[in-house]
Amino acid sequence: MKNGKIVAKIVRWCPCAGTVEDLKTIMTRGTPLILLLAMQLIASAFHSCVGFQIPSFLRGPFGKKGSDYVGGRRRWVPKAALSSVEVLDDQALKRVLLKHPSGSEATVYPFGATLTSFRTFDGEEVIAVRKDAKMDGSKAISGGIPHCFPQFGPGELPQHGFARNMEWRIKELSDEFTRNAYVTLELTDNDETRKIWDKSFSLEYTVTLRDVALSTDLRVRNLDHTAHMEFTAALHSYWNVSSLANVEVVGAFKGARVIDRQQSPHVEGTEDEYVLRITEPTDKMYCNLPGEVVIKDTGYNRMLSVKSPTGFEDVVLWSPYGDESMGFDDFLCVENAAASSKVTVPPLDEWRASMRVDVRTLPRARS
Ligand SMILES: *[C@@H]1O[C@H](CO)[C@@H](O)[C@H](O)[C@H]1NC(C)=O
């Protein structure tokens, strides 16, 4: 009765509202909508404040979208959640385990300062370790992200230099008040390195674990007071793919100077594609390649965006296509390198190079 009176009043004051009966139906029909909005409001509050994973259709217009949920992968993390770092020494080689409050994890071996695992919070592995890898220190770890320093590839020094098979010192670990867990490793010249390369240097390498991203920073210092130091360097990154048949590599390749190192002698040319597919043994160096390289994998339904904000100007694409003993179909190497020309560091100066990988979900194909 009361409702009826209100409705009648509205109709009187606002003639455009139609008849009393019309308004009554609107109000009855409107109730489910109001309940739905209220439910979505509560659901989104749970989602953002308590960290409950609630699907976006339940959160409706209140759902937190935009930058917090890039590619649907980022998970909301309570402000108070803590990262952690552990040094584990229960196997042949010591390893550092980084944990981010979002649930992502990374493993770094001080031996060769090699990262061997980066999992996002949903447990998906981004890194590949070759099936023929030795994890006992008898040789460099084949897979993960090993270093090539002070020489990329073959040359006067041993293939890929020595940094990848020396024990680095743990210099710093993030504390529990750091949101993005990190480890800093250090290698300075010693009797062993001077026998191979008679230079006075220090390398400092930091791996920082973010939620759906990971970054690395390399700092190379020339500790000599008078002499310049020259070298080439790279991160020989092995990215985990579902199968090379599912993979496209996208970047600013078209028009770039490319050195085909698979041929002997090497053949230099200009790339004429933006999108590359791996269908044969590949070893190509793209010189001064700007921007990111995206590894699109329809099998894993994800994209890995790999870039070097500073320092590494070349990108090397490597695949031992067809080599079953290496498990060739499980990985693709997209390597950030400074190798097409030598880096020169003046006395007591330094050179820095960084790399960052972001994991995203493939956008839905439009049909
Ligand atoms: C790739 O990741 C999967 C898990 O997603 C893992 O089982 C596999 O061992 C990884 N492949 C390599 C070569 O590391």
Automatic annotation (TrEMBL):
Coiled coil: none
Transmembrane segments: 33-54
InterPro entries referenced in this protein's UniProt entry, alphabetically: Aldose_1/G6P_1-epimerase, G6P_1-epimerase, Gal_mutarotase_sf_dom, GH-type_carb-bd
Organism: Vitrella brassicaformis (strain CCMP3155)
Signal sequence annotation: none
First-level EC class: isomerase
Full protein name: glucose-6-phosphate 1-epimerase
A GO biological process held by the record: carbohydrate metabolic process
Molecular function in Gene Ontology: carbohydrate binding; glucose-6-phosphate 1-epimerase activity
